[in-house]
Amino acid sequence: METCIAQADFVYQTLVSLFNRFGDEQYGEAVTQKQHMLQCAFLAEQEGETDDIIVASLLHDVGHFIGPQDAGLIADGTPEEDFNHEVLGARFLTKYFGKEITVPIQLHVAAKRYLCAVKDDYYDGLSDASKHSLALQGGPMTAEQVAKFEQGEYFRQALRVRYFDDYGKQVGLEIPDLDYYRDRIIKLVNPS
């Protein structure tokens, strides 16, 4: 039991280190990466989501922290190319969390592409940075891709994470810090 608690605390401290090291970077939005991720978790909690969705929303962009730190950026901090941060993040987190967290993270970019294909007004509501990244990520899905995406086991969860991703970019929103989510994170870490 103590080993599991120590492992879970190690995972949490690893995440704290990543947030502290890379979280204050800009990524083309009006808030920092850390503010964005904390807002996503906060909004998920406010909507009464499960701990899985709250933690997935919190960690959905962790791939930006572990991706190529020297990736080319345009002047406002927006990446010049897509390096599949959703895949990098999900792979990294798979060592520590179950599919109920990692799969929605891996699918949150696909969820944007899906929503652009099925909702006429969705694209217009995206931020400029999100529109830019959409083009890098393949644009809206085709009808065949839409049908396949809808068959995925974590399809609905990915849409929830995407929803919070879209709205977690508010300047001045008061949110709890990362430590507020510590117990949730530790509870969801896979036993080693």
From TrEMBL:
Q: What is this protein called?
A: HD domain-containing protein
Pfam families this protein is in? HD
Q: Which residues cross the membrane?
A: none
The source's domain of life comes to: Bacteria
All copies of the HD domain together span 35-100
Gene source species: Litoribrevibacter albus
